[in-house]
Amino acid sequence: MRLLVYGQQQPHYSQYMLNQYILNPALTGIENYTDIKVSHRHQWVGIDGAPVTTYFTAHMPLGKQDFRTTPTSFRIPGENPRGKAYWESYTAAEPHHGIGIQMINDKTGPLNRFSGYLTYAYHLGISAKTSLAAGFGAGVNNLRLNTGKLDFGIVTPVDPAVYENRSLNYFRPDFSAGVYLYSADYFLGLSARQIIPQKLKFSDNSVTTTEGKLVPHLFATTGYRFLLTDEFNLLPSVMVKYIRPLPVQADLNLKLQYLDLCWGGVSYRTGEGFAAMLGLNISNALNIGYAYDYTTTRLSTVSKGTHELMIGFIIGNKYGSWCPKNVW
């Protein structure tokens, strides 16, 4: 007997719009500083064994030359640094490199997956206000199965597939790649994670084989920034995700930002549910975001929702920016 296992293999993120780097390595080194993000997500609270995801990311530019010559470079007292002057003075990126690191731990029931990557990107201005970046990531996945937490019921207390395999501990190489087109008022990104399909299998060599396959995850993101007033920006965005053989899934997002101080947003994920989000830039070195997800599936009867917390740290912020110039 053979059992094939497919499904969602990369974690869900509700606040990916605050850290698109977690989906697309082309954003490596996009800003003028070292950008650090720490996030913890507890999905479907109240359900035993539901996914719990924690990640750490950090990336920085190399050879990026910026000068204090425009309002996008430093704060002007009394003026919104993301207001009308931002559009008028925005310039494309100077050619530069970026390097970064991603560490992600995702635990679902007895299965734990740890992924670590090093990333690189190159940024280039292709017009006066538009830039293009391309990047890639290389790393390793460690998948570990805690067989002591497996429960097959009272009829079959021990599954033959794991009888001689008390622990599943696989290391597999992993790669990601992406491109990112960005300007003052729009962005468009394409990326692929888990590029190389790989089989995972453990068995008793006689009766049962349990087989899974790591499949590529494809992402497309786009968004536009509307200047409602000189104090408020409205930022609609969309993410489309495809994982063969699953149906295409989309996230529809809307974010309202006040000056460069705080923001609120809502999101709808097709076939799954809604999310509400809030964020605050506490200083030019610290920001925080929170999201609450409510599922519209049958899980809503047993789940108390999903909580996601993200904390951002900015190092080397020599221009004192309270919010990113290029990622919003």
UniProtKB/TrEMBL annotation:
InterPro entries named among the record's database cross-references: PorP/SprF_Bacteroidetes (IPR019861)
A Pfam family reported for this protein in Swiss-Prot or TrEMBL: PorP_SprF
NCBIfam families in alphabetical order: T9SS_PorP_fam
Protein name per its UniProtKB record: Type IX secretion system PorP/SprF family membrane protein
Species per Swiss-Prot/TrEMBL record: Pseudobacter ginsenosidimutans
